[in-house]
Amino acid sequence: MNYESSTIEAETRALPGDVGSPPAGRRRAIIIGLVIAVLAVALAWYLLTPSAEEAAPGAAAKGAGAQIPTVTVAVPGRDTVRSIISGTGSLAARRDMPIGVVGEGGLVTRVLVEPGSWVREGQVLATVDRSVQTQTAESLEAGVAVAQADARIAQTELDRALQLVDRGFVSRADVDRRTATRDAARARVEVARAQLAEARARNQRLDIRAPAAGLVLTRAVEPGQIVSGGNAVLFRIAMGGQMEMRAQLSEGDLARVRTGTPADVTPVGSDRTLKGEVWQVSPVIDPQTRQGIARIALAYDPVLRPGGFASAQIVAGAGTLPLLPESAVQSDDDGNYVYILDAQNQAVRRGVTIGEVSDAGVSIAAGLDGSERVVLTAGGFLAPGQKVNPVLRTLDR
């Protein structure tokens, strides 16, 4: 027996009586065994437990059968819904009066108004030099005085002849001649007066006047300018200051508009909305654009500038219809629809026809009578016949 065998036997003999800690080699063996056992258990669990993908269908099926979705529903009722037609167009004077030279014209001496001025009927807007015409009128006035003097002389001579005819100093023929002379003198007075009146009327026409009260829109004349009857327009006036919007509407929309229809007009660049009404509907349609014009009368306001642009909301009518929020209306290849709930709280698809769309919501022209429970949200995730848990909500109006 060698040295190593003697050592092993000595250690073996010593084990029964050893009550202390086990040797280091044995502790290592125990630890390694425990680690191997834990790994074995983990491997067995991994192999025997089904994967998440395998377990998901069963869990989903179990959840689908056990969970009922909660949806918000409302009974829309029926509200008065206005039919609104939107249009855009330009602003203009309702009655735009171009003013030019009425008389023979001449040198402009004064211009008395500016654009934006209010004028009354007959007010002088500009004057034309009339120095020559004034001299002519004075000459004619003197001619009237001469004719009147001749008429008075003729009348005096006739009166004297009438006094002498009974005494035989004047013949009846002489009286007749004096009567004719008197009548001719009176006629010359009337001619002279007519010529004077004509000259004065011509002189009055040298003043450029407003034909009616209104607002001056443009001025195209300055002092020192030579004007004549063939000149372009010197002033433009909006009669009474009345304005209008010429709304461009499609052929279909124009057919729904009537005279007297109220409208709201908002000029570009302004946050103000002005009230007006349609006073004329175009009798023709542009063959190129397929549009017509609805002319909306407006009272004067500083924000209304002819030539500017504006938008209009024209009230074409009103009806009593169900009104829903946009989230309640769905659409697909078959058209627009909503989901309503039956007595068993099951989803039922209902096809609808949409009316007016506004900030207040979507009006339903056909498909609902307003007494149904309509699903407001999550309708896109429902299927026909699916049972739901409804939560009733009151619609804000």
Automatic annotation (TrEMBL):
GO MF annotations, alphabetized: efflux transmembrane transporter activity
Coiled coil ranges: 182-209
SUPFAM superfamilies linked to this entry: HlyD-like secretion proteins (SSF111369)
Gene Ontology terms: cellular component: efflux pump complex
Domain of life: Bacteria
Spans through the membrane: 29-48
Domain Multidrug resistance protein MdtA-like C-terminal permuted SH3 residue range list: 323-376
Keyword Transmembrane: yes
This protein's UniProt keywords: Coiled coil, Membrane, Transmembrane, Transmembrane helix
The keyword Ribonucleoprotein is annotated on this UniProt entry: no
Domain CusB-like beta-barrel, first and last residues per copy: 246-316
NCBIfam families: RND_mfp
Family indicated by similarity: Belongs to the membrane fusion protein (MFP) (TC 8.A.1) family.
Name listed for the protein in its UniProt record: Efflux RND transporter periplasmic adaptor subunit
Species of the source: Sphingomonas baiyangensis
Highest classification ranks of the organism: Bacteria, Pseudomonadati, Pseudomonadota, Alphaproteobacteria, Sphingomonadales
